[in-house]
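Hi R.,

Here's the input for the zinc ion complex you asked about:
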Amino acid sequence: MNSPRPNLTSKADPPAKSRQPRYQRPPLTLVFYPDPTLRKLCLPVEKFDSTLRDVAEEMTALMQFHSGIGLAAPQVGLEPQLLVCGIESQLITLANAEIQESGQMGEFVEGCLSLPEVRVKVTRPERIRVTGYDVHGQRKSFAATGLWARAIQHELDHLNGVLICDYGRPAESCAQCPLALPTVLVEERKHQSQHPRSH
Ligand SMILES: [Zn+2]
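And here is the predicted structure with zinc ion in place:
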């Protein structure tokens, strides 16, 4: 998710990596619409190893470089259930996140780093309780409100292949869309984002 506020930081250079990756992998880059990875259903993270930590660190740097407040694995062409969020100086990384409870709904205009020109008014719960794992495999459970709740839900949608254009865009504008999905499938995926997975 991109920042709702203008960001005045310089975009001269991406942040230098603090250390060399442990194996050769091209640097992660943002994936834009209509890349088909944006519709993929991500798989649960099973290994909390150095590869996962490197990917999470690089995703965080990329999100910050692009002045975003959230980024999900499909937005860098990957398919683990991994998301990062950062608002002001606070950062979180969550693997296998699930929403356990949610409060009353509210509207907010969202943007997305993968859909640079698109702004959509999205109705979501304004308060959620989330569970997930950090990059070390430690289980986390916390409440999120406001922009945090918004960003986490937006990124969770990405892990189920749901995009902001799936909320409130006229059907005719999707007629030529290479990523169009049947409405019933989109609703099923939204439901998956919004509820605990059945294990
Ligand atoms: Zn997004």
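One thing worth noting: DSSP finds three helices and seven strands in the chain.

Cheers,
M.
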